Amino acid sequence: MTAEPNSSPAPARIPAGVWALGFVSMLMDISSEMIHALLPVYLVTVLGTSMVTVGFIEGIAEATASITKIFSGALSDWLGKRKLLAAIGYGIAAFTKPVFPLAPTVGWLIAARFIDRVGKGIRGAPRDALVADIAPAALRGASFGLRQSLDTIGAFVGPLLAIALMWASADNFRAVFWLAVIPAFLSLALIVLAVEEPKRHVDERQAKNPLSLAAVKHLGKPYWRVVGIGVVFTLARFSEAFLILRAQNVGLGAMWVPAVLVLMNIVYALSAYPAGVLSDRINRTGLLTIGLVCLAAADLALATLANLGGLALGVILWGLHMGLTQGLFATLIADTSPATLRGTAYGYFNLLCGIAMLCSSVIAGALWDAFGPAATFLSGLAFALLSLGGLLAIDPIVEPANGRER
Known about the structure:
The chain is mainly alpha-helical. It has one domain (about 15-200, about 210-395): Up-down Bundle (Growth Hormone, Chain: A), CATH 1.20.1250. The protein is built from 17 helices and no strands. The protein has helices at about 15-35, 40-45, 50-80, 85-95, 100, 105-135, 140-170, 175-180, 180-195, 215-220, 220-235, 240-250, 260-280, 285-305, 310-335, 340-370, 375-395. The longest helix has 30 residues, at about 340-370. Mean pLDDT is about 80; it is low at about 1-10 and about 400-405.
């Protein structure tokens, strides 16, 4: 696919609605990461669960979110509206947060994680489609990069707050979980009050049946190629919960374990926006290749260097891989899907990647229990190298989208 030439000057500024959605995501991520940065250690050390159980919980949580996204995305296309569904998803997540400090057993935590991820699933595809609707085509990569950077700032502010609060409360997990409720409700208030959905053209208001076979075919081969690459990428990247557990394995105390997510997400946040800007100007496949090389190198470092230096190197490379690829995939979905089916397009993408995440996380946990942490990260390295070979064997996925609208 080739880019159409620019017919008008590129807009100079990212729209306010994209900024608002970025801050909505940031606040919810602060809340979620305050909990998720501690939850694997809480499950293992306080409730006595196994590593494979952690892998199952993390995998099923993300798979649940991904399965829900296909229906919420399709519903947003059918209704011709995005904001309402996104707000409902943020509301479910906010009202689920108090369950974490109240949960007496693993079963309650699984239920809370499940419902929380349902909320994420409901909001995810409509929110990303809303960003694509608001952002000009010439700034689409930059817009998704900005939203991803703001979202990721929340992902490292949350663990930083978790560290500080664990220190202040003498490792009181439940107190930290309670304080995580506050930014979740601020996020809900912000999307309700500060985000305005753009009006659609008459011929773009809704899709009659977004989940029909005709709609699937209408998404087109370039879109499904992006989905296939995203699934293979996800098989090579399991849950970040295993980064936390690796940190504990090499000797970090419970209070400092969230620093792993802080470091990863600082790198992620710093790289996502520049990568988004760059993706508006150069071939996409090259950026994806660099990101996959970073993931392979991260797995190698985490598998072979069982010390704090190796942990830091692996986490930095992991964050760089995320910054180079996650916003880029969101941009590619917008580039290759029709405007009337964008919600559905994000839904299918996240559904299939969520299934891959479930498989990779369960495999990672089983390998850890059976053979130790090195086996887990070496399996990730193997998948990354296979993915890299497949990516290099195909033609460029899509040329720069500057000036093009679908």
